[in-house]
Amino acid sequence: MDSSRAAAEALDAADPLAGFRARFAGTEDDGQERLLYLDGNSLGRMPLETPAALARVVETEWADGLIGSWSTWIEQATRIGDALAAGVLGAGPGEVLISDSTSVNLYKLLVAGADARPGRDVLVCCADDFPTDRYLVAGVAAARGMTVREVPADIDEGLDPAVLAAALDDRVAVVVLSSVAYRSGALTDVPAVTRLVRDAGGLVLWDLSHAAGAVAVDLAGSGADLAVGCTYKYLNGGPGAPAFLYVRRALQEQLRQPIWGWFGQRDQFAMGPEYDPAPGIERFGVGTPPVLAMTAVEVGARLVAEAGIDRLAAKGRALTELTVELADEWLVPHGITLASPRDAVRRGSHVTLAHPAAWQLTQALIDRQVVPDYRTPDRVRLGPAPLYTRFVDVWDAMDRFRVVLTSGEFERYPAELTRVT
Hints:
Number of helices: 14
Number of strands: 13
Structural class: alpha/beta
Radius of gyration: 22 Å
Low-confidence stretches: none
Mean pLDDT: 96
Strand order of the largest sheet: 2-8-7-6-5-3-4
Shape: globular
């Protein structure tokens, strides 16, 4: 391996996605020490097109068009959903909807899936999955008198499908899993796991939050039943942006989600006395959608689709490979260990490194203008977003990491956690 900065510069010169970087705020080089943002797996950068798109809606569609603009806004959730389906998720038209938050969408599909498997009283999740997913599974099970089976997973290597298979039987209604482990970035084999669950007679509900926009997803090809995901990470929709949900077309008419709102109602402006779910994916809507927030989502989703998910996934693998190679050479001799799968094809677009003083290292890196994040128990998580992160950004960040680590300067930072890490 050539670990020189010149080698990283050569990779950038050959990068077919290099032009996308200039379409994001905060990526300009001004001669100062650059902020090296490696937290795109938590919150993506703002596209430069977003303020103008929001201004258009505010100043023209809202200020001038007023209520008449609903003739355009009414189809926004399905229009953006179709763009995500075709350009990012490998799904068909009418299978993806922008709606609510990831947590609310997961709740809706989890309850709908459990209802569609009457007589089955077990929900399955991964013991190391993102907390919201586990909490929701526990809450739904408690409300319905069901049992939860938490399947163990290696904190660094992810879920072993054989371990999951041993937890499946004719009592399992729905299995909730993440396609990319939030802590380590470990990939789950979506097609293989989907087949396992289907063969057991259950449904699988995928959380794509750490995959969408950075990892190649083929929901239709994998036979996936249900999926949810956020839009503020690699899709760059902005903090707290509305999430998406996916329901395989063949399942849509079989499922009735539990939150009966007027945006999920057939002929909603008839104002009928009883709830009658709309046909197709729109039955999974609830209340009036947040038009401004969805406008920002549409900008980010179309940028990702324009770049091409296969090219983004390939660059994401290359960026994480460089991260691991530099960590092996520069950081591992000083007490850092890799806390992600070593094989790039088993990783999403982030790398996690373990050290007993991970929180102190995270604070020191931020003061050095390197932005990662911290995850328990002792992990520094580095998330280079392939749409705008350069190879020299990774090189420079790891070089600053080396200085922070070898100098011992991190030791002067407090070990006590703050509310946001």
